[in-house]
Amino acid sequence: MTVLEQIKIFYVNNEQDEFLKYEILADHTGRPAVALVYISLQHQVGQLSYAVWTKIAELNVASTEEKAEEALKLAMQVCVDHRAGWQK
Questions:
Q1: How far apart are CA 42 and CA 68, in angstroms?
Q2: Measured between alpha carbons, how far is residue 59 from residues 31, 37, 44, 46, 67 in Å?
Q3: Which residue in 86, 9, 6, 15 sits closest to 53, CA to CA?
Q4: For residues 40-59, b (16+ Cβ closer than 10 Å) or e, as one string?
Q5: How many domains in the chain?
Q6: Which residues contact 75 (CB under 8 A, 6 or more apart)?
Q7: Which tops the pLDDT comparison, 14 or 84?
Q8: How far apart are CA 5 and CA 15, in angstroms?
Q9: What is the pLDDT of residues 8-43, one digit of tens each?
Q10: Residue 44 pLDDT
C-alpha cells in the first residue's frame, strides 16, 4: 500500500481566466511524487447552478532532487508547464 500526503494546492489560469487546480502529493520521504490536475465544471439543475472540481490528469512530478523545497519548486514548474500546454 502507498500512502501519499497532500503538500501543496495551487491554481494556474490562462489568459481567459480559466483555472486548473493542482494538488501535489508527497511520498514517505516528503518529496513530491504526483500532481493531480482538476478543472472546474459548471452544472445547472433547474435554477441551481454549481461548480465541481473534476480530475482530468495525474502528472509524475518525482525528481532526483534531494532537498524537498527544491523538489517542490520543480514539481510546481511541471504543473505550470502542463497548464501552458493544456486546452479544453
A1: 36
A2: 14, 8, 30, 36, 20
A3: 9
A4: eeeeeeeeeeeeeeeeeeeb
A5: 1
A6: 8, 24, 32, 35, 61, 63
A7: 84
A8: 31
A9: 999 999 888 889 999 999 999 999 999 999 999 999
A10: 93
- The residues that bridge with 8 in the sheet, in sequence order, are 24
70: its cell numbers: 527544491
Range of the domain at 51: 5-85
Query: What is the pLDDT confidence band of residue 56, given thresholds at 50, 70 and 90?
Result: very high
Where are any strands of DSSP class E within the chain?
5-12, 20-26, 32-45, 48-60
Residue 48 — pLDDT band, cuts 50, 70, 90? very high
C-alpha separations of 86 from 4, 5, 82 in Å? 25, 25, 6
What is the pLDDT at residue 45?
92
